[in-house]
Write a structure and sequence with these properties.
By secondary structure, the protein is an alpha/beta fold. It has three domains: about 45-85 and about 300-485, Glucose-6-phosphate isomerase like protein, domain 1 (Rossmann fold), CATH 3.40.50.10490; about 100-295, Rossmann fold (3-Layer(aba) Sandwich), CATH 3.40.50; about 495-530, no CATH class. The protein is built from 17 helices and 13 strands. It binds 6-O-phosphono-beta-D-fructofuranose (F6P). This is Glucose-6-phosphate isomerase. Belongs to the GPI family.
């Protein structure tokens, strides 16, 4: 018999937190935010420190958040998940009924793996990747003219695009100078056309990534690229690679130069450390850097098993998020990396978080009676400062902010201009924004008044490297998983994307048959003037 999971409002800690939320810590009172507080409210972890002095929390609130995490059994559930429990399910209703084992993709460094069977499969795929990359390097794999491949087009969408793309962008500073990577995701034909215009197809590999092997956008883009290869007199089977689920419609060795697998127990948005991300990263950076990236993720996974929230960054970040969202009524979370390399990372987290926890049904099939996942968005600083920070400081909407910064730049190409170099300017801005949001500043002119008390945290790392990128990714994956457990939702399915897909098919059918005006979908087609 399945264990009954508690909803948060059934927890004593929930009631206590509600009471504490009536009078949250006021950061604007003179001396409230002092150096002692800033020094105390720091959680040191793998590759990152979490600075959380600028949160509206006291030690009482932290104790209650610890109790809530304990009452909901968050770390216990996380450990069950890593060991292979069927976490992707809704009781009493048909659901996916799957294990959730994206953590197995990096559990290759443990002496004793949390789930042996999954790690065996993961190691097999990694060995295939290592061999494949070596064959490109040593010239065993070449194009028909005997030349080496210098470009790769990664074709996929959603979890098969956002994670790999954001990680590639984050790490391309470490990329091989002789290799280029391009991404195509949107079914807008201009997306693939723009890439096809830029590459020399004869020296290009095309990596088609789709877990299901049936996603409309990816299959359409694959066809467009295959067609371009044929038009260039090339054989697609000598250029195309696949990452897909075993026995998916794309699992066809004759059509691909190589096929790599991902498995049912790896959800799309959690798949960046599987072959979904590893093939592109391996092509761009080399196999050893893939291992570094996985190592960072594995270390973070291990650290996330600590019960004490004050010593577990993902759990603490998750619980601070619950405090802000469920108790202080902050509906949105802005992820603001002060790192140009991370410019696509908020987009990846948007899918990872919102597709996971944007749910209204609990795992027991009952409706959610409190707020589940927040709206997640973000852009890099300092660019955002000149765009939307006005609202963060003075808007009526209260936004929970998560800053990410690094002490050192990736490329070390900097110089002193007017007394400081650009990296110092970047970091000064990050810290200034954190304080300005928290403390505010009074002014008798209401239009120039900063109310303060705008909660934020800073995730501070040394440098964005493959290892720290792996750790950062795993940190957020674990945060999202902990919050999903806390809200008692199934973070691992995505039924909410289905209806739009069904209606798009209906509209495509109406377009093909020139039907118009009978159903609501057809009426909309006519009103929009689309033939
Ligand atoms: O890898 P696939 O099967 O092509 O799916 C792509 C994306 O589509 C979704 O199923 C949502 O439409 C995502 O969850 C997934 O990451």
């Amino acid at each position: 018999m399945a264990k009954r999971r508690k909803s948060i409002y059934e927890c004593q800690a929930f009631l206590n937190l509600k009471e504490l939320a009536e009078n949250p810590f006021d950061m604007t009172v003179e001396g409230a935010l002092d150096s002692e507080r800033l020094e105390t409210f720091v959680c040191k972890g793998i590759e990152f420190d979490l600075l959380y002095g600028c949160q509206r929390v006291t030690t009482d609130v932290l104790d209650c958040l610890q109790s809530l995490a304990d009452e909901c059994g968050l770390v216990g559930q996380y450990e069950e998940m890593r060991a292979g429990a069927v976490m992707n399910r809704i009781e009493r209703y048909p659901s996916e009924e799957r294990q959730v084992l994206h953590t197995a993709c990096r559990d290759v460094f443990s002496k004793t793996a949390a789930n042996d069977a999954a790690v065996i499969q993961v190691k097999r795929e990694l060995a295939k990747l290592q061999e494949f990359l070596a064959e490109i390097d040593n010239g065993k794999i070449r194009n028909t003219a005997g030349e080496t491949f210098t470009s790769l087009i990664h074709v996929g969408i959603g979890g098969s695009d956002l994670g790999p793309r954001s990680i590639y962008e984050a790490l391309k500073a470490y990329g091989r100078k002789d290799r280029k990577v391009y991404f195509v995701s949107n079914v807008d034909p201009d997306d693939s056309a723009a890439v096809l215009d830029r590459v020399d197809l004869s020296k290009t590999l095309v990596l088609v990534v789709s877990k299901s092997g049936s996603t409309l956008e990816t299959l359409s883009n694959e066809s467009l690229v295959r067609n371009a290869l044929k038009e260039a007199g090339l054989d697609p089977a000598r250029h195309c690679l696949a990452v897909t689920g075993e026995s998916s419609p794309m699992d066809n060795h004759e059509r691909y130069l190589r096929s790599f697998y991902m498995f049912d127990y790896i959800g799309g948005r959690f798949s960046s450390t599987s072959m979904v991300g590893a093939v592109t990263l391996g092509f761009a950076l080399g196999y050893n850097q893939v291992l570094e990236f996985l190592k960072g993720a594995w270390l973070m996974d291990e650290a996330a098993a600590e019960r004490n929230i004050r010593g577990n960054i993902p759990l603490l970040l998750a619980m601070l998020g619950v405090w802000n969202h469920n108790f202080l009524a902050m509906d949105t979370v802005a992820i603001l990396p002060y790192s140009q390399g991370l410019h696509r990372f908020p987009a990846h987290l948007q899918q990872c978080d919102m597709e996971s926890n944007g749910k209204s049904v609990q795992r027991n099939g009952e409706p959610v009676r409190y707020k589940s996942g927040p709206i997640v968005w973000g852009e890099p600083g300092t660019n955002g400062q000149h765009a939307f920070y006005q609202l963060l400081h003075q808007g009526t909407e209260k936004v929970a902010v998560e800053f990410i910064g690094f002490r050192k730049s990736q490329r070390n190409r900097d110089m002193c201009i007017q007394g400081s170099n650009s990296q110092q300017k970047l970091l000064a801005n990050l810290l200034a924004q954190s304080l300005a949001l928290a403390v505010g500043r009074e002014d008798e002119n209401p239009n120039k008044n900063f109310a303060g008390n705008r909660s934020n945290v800073i995730l501070m790392g040394e440098r964005l490297t493959p290892k720290s990128m792996g750790a950062l990714l795993a940190l957020y994956e674990a945060k999202i998983v902990f919050q999903g457990f806390c809200w008692n939702v199934n973070s691992f399915d995505q039924e909410g994307v289905q209806l739009g897909k069904v209606l798009a098919d209906e509209i495509l059918g109406a377009m093909a048959e020139k039907r118009n005006g009978k159903t609501l979908a057809e009426a909309l087609l006519a009103v929009a003037g689309i033939s």
